[in-house]
Amino acid sequence: MVAAASVVVAAGTVSGVISATGDGRDAPEARPVPSASPSLVPLPAVPSASPSATVSASPSVRPERAGAPASASPRVKRKTVEAAATRLYRHPASRVLDWVRAHPGDPRRPVIESRIADRPAAVWFADWSPDTVTARVRAVTSGGAAQGRVPVVVPYAIPGRDCGGHSEGGAPDLDAYDDWIDRFAAGLGSGEVVVILEPDSVAQADCLSAGQRAERFASLARAGRLFKAANPRARVYYDAGHSGWHTPAKQADLLRQAGAASPMSSDGVFSNVSNFHGTADEIAYDRAVLDALGGTGLGAVIDTSRNGNGAPADGAWCDPAGRRLGRAPTLSTGESRIDAYLWVKLPGESDGCEGAPGTFSPSYAYDLAR
Q: Based on C-alpha coordinates, what's the Rg of the chain?
């Protein structure tokens, strides 16, 4: 992603973030700069040791090819999250769970299992496999519904993602992407689900020409409208980068162009995905973005998976040392306009320095968890 970036390497589920690919796991992307934050109480040191669901998909209805993003309209009453929906879904397949099951005697296993693998996390759909995406999304959403829990899904296939960086890939063009979004929407079911729509797709759009940006933003606006039409209980959040990147005013302007101010397509914004900025910094930043965005009834969600010590002072983003797990995932934050703390990035999955992007590093996971 740019020099000032930090990697979104898509995959894994902290008990849930699998890269929900057709036959393997995939990797996510990158982003910018530092900030400070609290730390976790360490656990005792332990000596170091060595080291999804598929099916065929069914296509869905294909509404409008992306036109101009819908702008904010009706004044909508701010949604509140009911107590029954405060429980997040832990997907039963992920790299960390694979490692835990395969290493019963590793001395790091109890810490990694209890502090990472047992936590609910997002499920990424980062590969380009349109024929299976509906069934794979449906497997996650139906799994959450069966347990009365709320899954978090991450569509991550926008063309030109990560500006050709660590997490390059995605759909071949926007027409193909719009079709993939149709298929994704067909798997959302009817229960509650949180959608983290395309990390970095808005904040990192400066690498596109003005025309390409407008086309991307139109497709993102369309995606939000389609998801909410397919499942009115879906909550869709748009990319706000993080507190060390754009100013709130600039980020809000980009978000508005992508349809994030409209209740027809958006429930608000997400920040800090795959980054390390402290929760207090992100809360202040997200509220400033929401104020500048101006939509009614919008909130924010924050990725707290690795922000327990805040961002490194030197702006390092690739598996930096000295980081810690952040606040546990929850849909009940006690903070106004902050809808959730989520683990979108799976702690222990490499940004590309401890291993290939998206691969699980038990040594890094253990360092984060203890």
A: 19
Q: Is 303 an annotated catalytic residue? A: no
Q: In this structure, are residues 252 and 292 in contact, taking their beta carbons and an 8 Å threshold?
A: yes
Is residue 162 part of the annotated active site? The answer reads: yes
Mean pLDDT of 157-180: 91
Tens digits of per-residue pLDDT, 210-233?
Answer: 999 999 999 999 999 999 999 999
Q: How far apart are CA 350 and CA 299, in angstroms?
A: 29
Residues 194-208 as b/e (b if ≥16 CB within 10 A, e otherwise) read bbbbbbbbbbbbeeb
pLDDT at 164: 77
User: Interior CA angle at 308 toward 304 and 313, to 5°?
Assistant: 110
Catalytic one of 182, 200, 267, 367: 200
Output the pLDDT for position 86.
Answer: 61
Name the active-site residue from 106, 182, 239, 351.
351
Contact 345, 7 (CB under 8 A): no
Beta bridge partners of 152: 194
The first and second tokens of residue 32, run together, are 């910018």
109-123 residue pLDDT tens:
999 999 999 999 999
Catalytic (active site) residue 351:
yes
Mean pLDDT score, 146-150? 97
* Helix, strand, or coil (residue 161): helix
* Dist. CA 268–CA 326, nearest whole Å: 22
Confidence of residue 296 (pLDDT cuts 50, 70, 90): confident
DSSP label at residue 302: E
Pairing relationship of beta strands 268-271 and 299-303 according to DSSP bridges: parallel
The C-alpha atoms of residue 305 and residue 325 are separated, in whole angstroms, by 5
Closest CA to 176 of 219, 136, 134, 123: 219
Q: Could you tell me if 245 and 251 are in contact, meaning their C-beta atoms sit under 8 angstroms apart?
A: yes
Element (H, E) at 193: strand 193-197
